[in-house]
Amino acid sequence: MAADSSDDTLNIQQEIRLGRSYTLADAIGQEAGDFMKGASPVPRLVVAKHEAQQALKEALVDGPGALHRVLEQWLADDDARLSRHLKHPAEAVKDLLASVLRSPETLYELVRQTDVTWGQLYDSRPHFQQPGQPPHPDDEYTHASVRDTLRHCLACLNTPSSIELSDTEEA
Length: 171
Known about the structure:
Blueprint: H1 2-18, H2 24-31, H3 44-59, H4 66-77, H5 79-84, H6 90-102, H7 104-122, H8 143-158, H9 162-170
């Protein structure tokens, strides 16, 4: 009886197929079943971008949040840097921080963009520090404070986590 039921199902499926035309979409649908087998449907660059942003979030200490937003945007906009570090996206963050710390002009631009973002976040007039000038007393992000924050973040990224330390101590 079960064999009759499966034969009936096969006959019905065959009749349905005979009644309709075979399209390119049908061919793709039949062949695509195994196409993504074992692979992530999310492109590797998107995954790397997310992992780099997560590494930045975990390592950067930024109470007001404006510096984090600007650095996150710089990372998101720099596909070339992320592409060089697809296997280890935290290295892209380290590379970005090191390049900012190496170039005073880039640091000044980062601080300027961070001040603008801070002003937008808190609906306040930002204080822009000019190179070689002392900062305004109420300036949340100065050249020196951002430089120190970036150095601390880079040190955190370069220091193995406590989980990795405990694993190596046991071995």
